[in-house]
From TrEMBL:
The keyword ATP-binding does not apply. This is BD-FAE-like domain-containing protein. Keywords: Hydrolase. GO terms for molecular function: hydrolase activity. Residues 72-169 form the BD-FAE-like domain. It comes from Methylobacterium bullatum. Signal peptide: none annotated.
Amino acid sequence: MRADPSPLPPDPRRDWSRLDRAARDAAYDNNAAVPDAAAQAAARNAASAIYRAAHPGALDIPYAPEPRTALDLYPATNPAAPCLVFIHGGYWQRNSPDLFACFAEGPAAAGWSVAMPGHTLAPEASLTQIVEEIGLCLDWLAEHGPAHGVAGPLVIAGWSAGAHLAAMQLHHPAVVAGLAISGVYELGPIRDTGLNDALSLTDAEVAAFSPLRLPVMGKPLAIAYGSAERPALVHDARDFHALRSAHHAPGPLVPVAGAEHFSILNELRRPGGVLVRAAIDLIEGRHA
């Protein structure tokens, strides 16, 4: 486990009942917390458009019948190479995989394949449907991936809401390990924020889809966060890793010093970045 060089910020949810709606919204508002969030997103989108245009061979492949249930594949030269299945973020209600294509650069430089699935967004889809759709994508990759040059082990990964979805699919039989980046692993407080206007989370969904409330999966899972993230996300990452450690489940806690919610992904884009290395270690650890 890597030591976090920064002091642990207080978790605002400890006084949740005393906070008004604005303070609760602020606890999860990553855009407001990062002054140049819009500029970072614009740069990401531009770089992703360039990367996608340079790798047009296997884009927008349907894995289920809904309009957004398609994935982009970036196969490695070696079909047996590991494949990082990266799920985009956006609090389950924004974004699409084409906007994150540039983050295939780091894994691709390591010789990996990358798959980037989309999913139906809330409020059109419930969280139940979204979780199920990612499972369908993994089913599709297990069955059809080899025909598209993706036959190696699948490492499920995601950022923000995508990290939550990755954690929810660690159990999938085609998945050998996971990398969860800057995720939300307890959904209860989300119901008290504006994010729930689109999600309309039920009691059953909060119970069934909060990884911190679920039985621990024994597959390796690296849990990453930026030391400059919103405190609620920092605590979720550390609490999730502590829960898994208490059950002797493998996988490191990966604090990225100085990174906030958006800049942390530079460590996935950069060849040899911290998050690329974390993914590689998950696979190499299986054979150690």
